Amino acid sequence: MDQRKTPVLDAIAQYRRGGNYTFALPGHRLGLNVDDRTAAVLSRSTFEADVIMAKQSVSDAEELLAEAVGARQAIFTTCGSSISIHTAMLTVTGPGKKILVDRNVHKSVVASLILAGADPVWLRPRWDQQRQIAHPATAHDVEQALDHHPDVSAVLMITPTEYGTGADTHGIARICHARDTPLLVDEAWGAHFPFHPTLPTAAIHAGADLAVQSLHKADGGLCQASLILLGGDLVDPVDLRLRLDLITTTSPSALLYGSIDGFRHRMAAEGHQLLEEALQRTNKVRTRLTKIPQIDVMNESIIGHDGVAEWDPMKLSIDVSALGITGYQAKDWLQSQHHLTAQLGDARRVVFSLTYTDDTTALNRLTDAIEALAADPPTNDTPAPDIPELEQLNLEQAMNPRQAYFATTEQTSDPTGRISAEMISPYPPGVPAILPGERFNEPVVEYLRAGLAAGMTLPDAADPTLKTFRVVRQ
Fold it and tell me: What is the domain extent for residue 321?
């Protein structure tokens, strides 16, 4: 196929040149009567590109992208990777079925369990006590879980993690396929992985049957632009599209489709060069930061640590705890003092998502700011929460997530021993610390309350103050 083509972008341009006028949607009439304030902020050309008829060209663009990344099929979605995850899970599991699920998953996976009515078998991540972060489960962990639960309908992994550590997708895929069990991979940060060999192995190349990617996270797509990549023959592509049709919008945005089309076009033409230059700039940043005392910069030495088979060098993870501050404070300080937004702050570290768009000027600005932070850190006005060992956060799944979510509920100030009816997800990365059907224990309650006091963001708690928690009524 000719990777120079851009079917969606061409369809938008052709419609605009054709002198067309629509009496159908969208009602803004390609921005004809958009007010000046809206046009000044959003740009009138945004509305002019909102050509819904362009969706007729999406199938051609999907074929081009599938060829470019080596997938059997590619499916564009426009409601974010949450809808892609819902689609994938509804395709491979359903009411009363078991699914082996990485417990380090994004909250969208838990929402999918609720929608599907499936029973999760939790695959516990590997706990790095030294760094106090979770790494992916190993292939052996997956094999043991499948031996104990041979009736699972599918396996879902998230890799790489928010911190850039990646699972042994090759090994896990071989184990799954030996049992004719499809492997789903939430690869939200990896749409660019197929275009450079130094980056983690693209899940679809490693044997994943379905891979979900977010185009807005580290690539050139607009927010809510997402991909589902299909590999192998364990998942029916017709079923996949039927499930998507069930839950997605019937009025998809041509802007999102066009941004996916444009991303593929650019990666096919110059992706390797762009990423090579970005990796060189990133290496220089990491080398410079490594010279700063009292901060610890994650690097390739993490590979080979328990559960870590690969590492994403475009994730810049910096432990600032030796400065006597939390990652929450560092993140806030960088924003308030230097107008720099980090991807993630946690109890110990701050994480930056670097992309091929970040030029030398931007990266020097970031490095200068971190040097200034290390030289004169802010006063520690909020103590870091004690992070319990992972085993203390391995909660009992006492009820099916769907049943707990729709049960009769109540709020209680002391949830210990009670079954949760809500999901509470420190964000980012949006991994639930407690989810519907799990039984609260004292460590998770203390961790969440201390984390909130230290600056943790908890956008989905029923009571944002955490004075009470939503539980199944006894």
Answer: 271-375
